[in-house]
Each structure stands twice: as structure tokens, then as C-alpha cells.
Amino acid sequence: QVQLVESGGGLVQAGGSLRLSCAASGRTFSSINMGWFRQAPGKEREFVAAIRWSGGSTSYADSVKGRFTVSRGNAKNTAYLQMNSLKPEDTAVYYCNAGVNIGTMKEGGLWGQGTQVTVSS
Predict the structure, then answer these.
(1) Would you state the torsion angle of the CA atoms of residues 33, 101, 98, 19, taken in this order, to the nearest 10 degrees?
(2) From residue 22, how far is each of 42, 61, 73, 88 by CA, in Å?
(3) pLDDT tens digits for 75-108?
């Protein structure tokens, strides 16, 4: 079964850091772009960050540039999102996505179940 499983969410104070992980299984993801999206209560899901399958290029939403860093594990079946200087407005459910388009930031067809990130002020 092909699936993505996120972990690492939690409650943190403003200014703190969290690292999200996304473990992919069921097939080889080494040639597939990986990305992160988030959805806050009452809002639509939005793009956060993405990394090309080769790891050679990344893309970020303006709201997280300079604070978040997306990366991949050596085996390419794991993706990470390092989140620093967190703000209350970063509070959302964060989803891992496989197949995201780096240029258009449009999601691919495979989603994880999501992990909650809550930033207190």
C-alpha cells in the first residue's frame, strides 16, 4: 500500500521550532517531488514548501521564506520540514504531498493524514 505518514507536530510557543517528517512507503519515491501544505481552521489548504525529486531545487510560500526549510533524506523516501521562528499564524494541520509541481505549486495526487501544529502566543 502506497502511503505517506507525517510526524513531528505539536504545541510550541511563538518563536520556537518544530521539525516535521514525512515517511513514504509502498513504492520508490526517489524520482517524485515532495511537498508540504497546510490548512488552518476555516481556511483553504495552502502550499508551504516543496523539494524536487533530485533535491536540487526548492520552493517556498512567501509567508514562510527564511523561516522554514524543506529537505529530503538520503534514501529520498523521507521528507522534512524544519520550522523556525514559528508564529501563531502558522497554526494549522500540515500535510505531506507527493508529486507536487515545483513551478506551479500545484499538489500531486498522494497525501498524508496530516499532523497538527499549534503555535501559542
Answers:
(1) 70
(2) 25, 19, 10, 23
(3) 778 999 999 999 999 999 999 999 999 999 999 9
Taken in order 77, 32, 27, 22, is the CA torsion positive or negative?
A: positive
86 against 26, higher pLDDT: 86
Chain-centroid distance, C-alpha 2: 18
First to last CA, the chain: 40
Q: Which are the contacts of 28, defined by CB distance < 8 A and separation ≥ 6?
A: 76, 77
Which is nearest to 48 in space by CA: 11, 85, 93, 109?
93
Which are the contacts of 94, defined by CB distance < 8 A and separation ≥ 6? 6, 9, 20, 36, 37, 38, 48, 81, 114, 115, 116, 117
CA–CA separation, 77 and 106 (whole Å): 20
Which grid cell is 102?
515545483
- Cell 515532495, located at residue: 34
CA 25 – CA 111 distance, rounded (Å) = 12
